[in-house]
Design brief:
With 319 residues, the protein is low in regular secondary structure. The protein has a domain of 170 residues: E3 ubiquitin-protein ligase SopA (Pectate Lyase C-like), CATH 2.160.20. It contains two helices and four strands. The strands form two sheets. A two-stranded parallel sheet has the order 1-2. It has a two-stranded antiparallel sheet with strand order 3-4. The longest helix is centred in the last third of the chain and has 23 residues. It is elongated. The N and C termini lie far apart (83 Å).
Length: 319
């Protein structure tokens, strides 16, 4: 079937084109609201600025399809293959991408407001500047994805894999990142105000200059994270592990809520160790946490200075 035949049949009020072969067809600017393309092969097709709102594209082959600037409100993409597809600037509010493959897709500037992306594969996808406000990204794969400048306020990313993702200057206000994997993620300059990061893995993440005011890091893994000039004001850090985290004098820790903290992670038993306060029945009193962190910071600074003084000078070559 070619584009002309499909448009003719659609004009005659036919809507079901399930399993159709429409590879590489050109349907740019087409109005196809409510069309049924379940399990259709649309690989390489062009839907530039088309309107497929309320359409059913579930389990369809949409690899390398061009949906740029298309109108796709409430469209069903569940289980579809959108690998390498271009959805830049598309309007996808309320769309269903659950279980879809969007690996390597170009989604820059797209609007996914209240969209369902649960369990979707977005590995290495470009979501820079995308609007994902209140989107469902539960258990989504976002490792290596570009989410710089994206708006994820109110999004549910619980259990999501964001390993090595780029979230520079992203907006994650009130986002749910409970048990999310953020290891190696770049969150520099991002806003995570009031975000939930309970039991999240932020090992080696970059949190420098991020706004973490009132965020909840209870039980989080903050091992070796960079937190230079980071604002933790009124954040909750009870039960988190801060082994080898890197902070400086500009890191804000005022009014942090922390009953106890861990200073080391035992890899052999996969358990946090070296609790402070040491007594399991005791908790930090007012400002105890700030004092402990300042003491640790000064100790680390002194160790660095000593190391520099003791560093052997390189031997000069003899004349």
């Amino acid at each position: 079937m070619d584009a002309r035949e499909l448009l003719k049949l659609y004009a005659e009020e036919q809507r079901d084109f399930s399993n159709a072969d429409l590879r590489s067809c050109n349907l740019s600017l087409a109005y196809l609201e409510g069309i049924q393309l379940y399990q259709a092969d649309l690989s390489g097709a062009n839907f530039l600025r088309a309107d497929l709102s309320d359409a059913n594209l579930s389990d369809a082959d949409l690899s390398d399809v061009n949906f740029s600037d298309a109108r796709l409100l409430r469209t069903d993409f569940s289980g579809a293959d959108l690998s390498g597809a271009n959805l830049s600037g598309a309007i996808l509010s309320g769309a269903n991408f659950s279980g879809a493959n969007l690996s390597g897709a170009y989604l820059s500037g797209a609007s996914f407001i209240s969209a369902d992306l649960s369990g979707a594969d977005l590995y290495s996808a470009d979501l820079s500047g995308a609007k994902l406000i209140s989107a469902n990204l539960v258990s989504a794969i976002l490792s290596g994805a570009d989410l710089s400048d994206a708006n994820l306020s109110g999004a549910d990313l619980s259990g999501a894999n964001l390993r090595n993702a780029d979230l520079v200057n992203a907006n994650l206000y009130r986002a749910n990142l409970v048990s999310a994997n953020l290891s190696g993620t770049d969150l520099s300059g991002a806003s995570l105000k009031n975000a939930k990061l309970i039991s999240a893995n932020l090992r080696s993440a970059n949190l420098s200059r991020a706004n973490l005011r009132s965020a909840n890091f209870s039980g989080a893994n903050l091992i070796r994270c960079q937190a230079l000039e980071t604002d933790f004001t009124r954040a909750t850090l009870t039960g988190a592990c801060i082994e080898d985290w890197n902070i400086n004098a500009q890191t804000q820790l005022k009014h942090v809520s922390c009953d106890y903290i861990y200073l080391r992670y035992d890899r052999e038993v996969s358990k946090y160790k070296e609790r402070r306060p040491r007594n399991e029945n005791e908790t930090f009193q007012l400002e105890d946490f700030e004092k402990l962190v300042e003491q640790l910071r000064k100790t680390m600074f002194d160790q660095v200075k000593v190391g520099k003084r003791q560093r052997p000078r390189s031997n000069r070559a003899s004349n």
